[in-house]
Amino acid sequence: MTNSIPEFADSKCFFIIGSNTTENHPIAAKWVFRGKANGAKLIVVDPRHTQMAELADIAVQHRLGTDVALINGLMHIILKEGWHDKQYVEERTEGFEEMAKKLEDYPPDKVAEITGVPADTLRQMAEMYAKTKPAAIIYCMGITQHTTGVDNVKSLANLAMLTGNVGVLGGGVNPLRGQNNVQGACDMGGLPNVFSGYQPVADEAANEKFSKAWSRDLPKKPGLTIMEMFNAIDDGKIKALYVVGENPMLSDPDIHHVEAALKKLDLLIVQDIFMTPTAKLAHVVLPGTSFAEKDGTFSNTERRVLLVRKAIEPVGNSRADWEIIVDLAARLGYPMEYASPEAVFQEIRHLTPSYAGITYARLAAGGLQWPCPTEDHPGTMFLHKDRFSRGKGAFTAIDYKPPAEVVDQEYPMWLSTGRMFAHYHTGTMTRVSPSLHHEQETGYVEINPHDARDMGIKNGERVKVSSRRGEILVKAKISDKVKRGVVFIPFHFAEAAANVLTNPAFDPTAKIPEYKACAVKVEKLAA
Fold first, then answer.
1. How many other C-beta atoms lie within 10 A of the C-beta of residue 182?
2. CA atoms of 40 and 14, how far apart (whole Å)
3. Strand 444-447 vs strand 486-490: parallel, antiparallel, or unpaired?
4. Is 386 domain-assigned?
5. How many angstroms separate the Cα of 285 from the Cα of each of 22, 278, 334, 352, 444?
6. For the residues 12-26, what does the mean pLDDT come to?
7. Does residue 194 sit in the same domain as residue 127?
8. Are 75 and 49 in contact (CB under 8 A)?
9. Which among 276, 464, 304, 463 has a CA at the least distance from the CA of 378?
10. What is the CATH number of the domain that holds 326?
11. Hey, which end of the chain has fewer CB within 10 Å, N or C?
12. Last residue of a domain, one of 176, 198, 225
């Protein structure tokens, strides 16, 4: 997030897109409610009618995968009406002319045809966002999990910069992370192309620094993403896989392909706290610990580093993840001389400028937000104040592209996937909780009442949903949350796994799969 969650109380307008905020990020939603109570306007854009839409001043359900067209359409109107922040654009940005030229291709009537959002509504949205400052953009995986995910995010950055809403209290472009410490994992280099603090492995100075610190010559070429790993297994280029705290047998698209690839491995190691579907395929299972059984730090969605203290001793034969990794490294001939999580953190500080000023002693008094370059630095509430970290903010001219797979006669309905309030991610933890299991015991497919009536489908009956990759049997849930021609399936449930159906096509830059849009067929089962 460029900004902080408590700043939402001071925001005057929210533009929430691709985020079911109340169900998936209830703490962030509470701060949105505070802002709304303080008079903020609320615009909600999502293919489903979410709970947050009930509170919105304007709520629209655009067609799946049309985010770039919609955002370009809003910016077209803002420019035509002169509602953009001219001084901000001139002083703090570059690339404006090229982007403005591209926006000429997105007049309201054309955008309405692409997105399904009426031209008059587009104008109301554009005026509300542009004229009500500071305005905060909030998004989640409904924006990123597309083959155009990077374009979607850049388009939101364009919109925020055009209206002068970056580098200001209560504004910004604010992605809500999908899991607790995903931000921390990325900060620590849990990506194939960077070291900690997003220092590129291909950068000569960064590579030399880490090679010296770790006493090894490190690769200068970025590694593989998850989707690329499975393709490499197919090609015989990867023989072993070490999976830590991840469950690709439920979370990755085209699960049949994932399973076939995992079974080809000579060695599959899974380190987790439960016997997940992925762990059941493993040759070796290493029992890790939950958050309550270990010390360390988490970095949350607003860049806040938080100290986690062990509440109970590890259960059974489980061990802290860092201890398992240190022992494994030693057996592979690379001793790691860490005595504690704090010792690991000291190395993080030494090698990562944005974490340099953060210490365990300081964290004991409360969280700190990076960048925090020195021990007397207070941390950074919001980014890009006065100037962007790159100098000037870069506008990008972006064209709309449809999803990789579109509906046709054989597969006439759109599928989108996501979460529901009672369960979390692949259900590893929540589905073993009796109270949460009681809230939602199995999967379902949301179907619009008109579509259900046309197919003779009743609420609660099992139906078959199929795509080009597979099929599942799942209960029907008749709901006005989805528009005609669209169905929604939560992905928590192994017995009705949505990701059997989803398309493994991915964004060419970020390599994120297109979970949010593919073509399916829904069929009533024979009596």
1. 16
2. 7
3. antiparallel
4. no
5. 35, 10, 21, 32, 31
6. 96
7. no
8. no
9. 304
10. 3.40.50.740
11. C
12. 176
As a whole number of angstroms, the distance between CA 128 and CA 518 comes to 32
> What is the Cα–Cα distance from 307 to 224, expressed in whole angstroms?
31
Q: Which two tokens stand for residue 302?
A: 């607003």
Average pLDDT over residues 119-147: 97
What are the structure tokens assigned to 2, written together?
A: 């460029």
Give pLDDT, residue 427.
86
Q: Is the pLDDT of residue 115 over 90?
A: yes
Name the pTM for this structure: 0.94
Mean pLDDT estimate for the chain: 96
How do residues 342-378 score in pLDDT, each as one tens digit? Answer: 999 999 999 999 999 999 999 999 999 999 999 999 9
* 186 and 165 in a common domain: no
Same-domain pairing of 164 and 217:
no
Q: What is the CATH number of the domain that holds 487?
A: 2.40.40.20
Q: In this predicted model, which residue has the larger pLDDT, 362 or 421?
A: 362
Helix (H) or strand (E) holding 154: helix 149-162
Which of 131, 151, 176 is the endpoint of a domain?
A: 176
**231/338 same-domain check:** yes
Domain-embedded: residue 200: yes
- Tell me how many domains the chain contains: 3
